[in-house]
Amino acid sequence: MGTIAENLDSVRKRIEAACERPGRNPAEIMLVAVTKTVLPEQMNEAIEAGVTQIGENRVREAWEKYPHVRPVTWHLVGHLQTNKVKRALQLFEWIHSVDSFHLAEKIEHESAKFERTIPILLEVKTSPEPTKFGVPVGETLEFVKKISAFGHIQIEGLMTIAPFTDEEAPIRKSFKTLRELRDHIAKAKIPGVRMNHLSMGMSHDFEIAIEEGATIVRIGTAIFGPRQT
Question: What's the number of CA atoms in the CB half-sphere (13 Å) around residue 107?
Fold first, then answer.
């Protein structure tokens, strides 16, 4: 691995190359640098190199780092427990992992107290691993309809995590499933619902995700190196 700035430059070039294949504009892609276990000094190094979007998996870890990190937009990309919602809303500007009505309802309730509307993505389970969180594909449209009237959350699109495998076919299938689901929901024209974003693709599969329509990629190890445990 090179320096963080070098790694970031390499990732950007790979994003550009991945966009060329389907004829997409690299400006359409939001790069979220995922900083789970990454130290604040390393985060600031990435920010100095041009990172504007930070993704964290855990609310508590994010809060510990927050005072030491330069101003950026914070995204919660990991699973969110309902008892952490209030704290999450005090820090994060995007939540990528809304996967139940109970969680959406809690975010709505707490957002109303802060008099704010928070952009959210619905996490969809597009592969069968039992450890994965997410709304089942076949239930997502009804889920969107059910929470679309909430006044303090703004549905911006969908998120998924592909199978962790070296085989391209199941990864591509997962991303294609999310894109087709997004298109299906968009055609329903549900008032107040936006389907502008597909958050999919991490360090090992983001190029496939871009080819399949990702607008947000969540990249950690390709920028910061292997995670510290």
Answer: 32
Tell me the two tokens of residue 170: 């199941």
Q: Could you tell me the CATH number of the domain that includes residue 40?
A: 3.20.20.10
Please, which residues have CB within 8 angstroms of residue 112's CB and are 6 or more apart in sequence? 151, 152
Judge whether 229 lies within some domain: no
Q: How far apart are CA 171 and CA 142, in angstroms?
A: 25
For residue 72, is it left (φ>0), alpha (ψ between -120 and 50) or beta?
beta
- CA atoms of 92 and 124, how far apart (whole Å): 20
The token duo for 65 is 């780092």
Torsion of CA 108, 142, 159, 194, to 10 degrees: -70
Residue 106 domain boundaries: 4-224
**Which pTM value belongs to this model?**
0.96
pLDDT tens profile 98-147: 999 999 999 999 999 999 999 999 999 999 887 789 999 999 999 999 99
Alpha helices in the chain (DSSP H): 4-20, 40-48, 59-65, 85-89, 101-113, 140-147, 168-188, 206-211, 221-224
8 A C-beta contact, residue 94 and residue 119: yes
Please check whether residue 203 lies inside any domain of the structure: yes
Helices (H), 80-167: 85-89, 101-113, 140-147
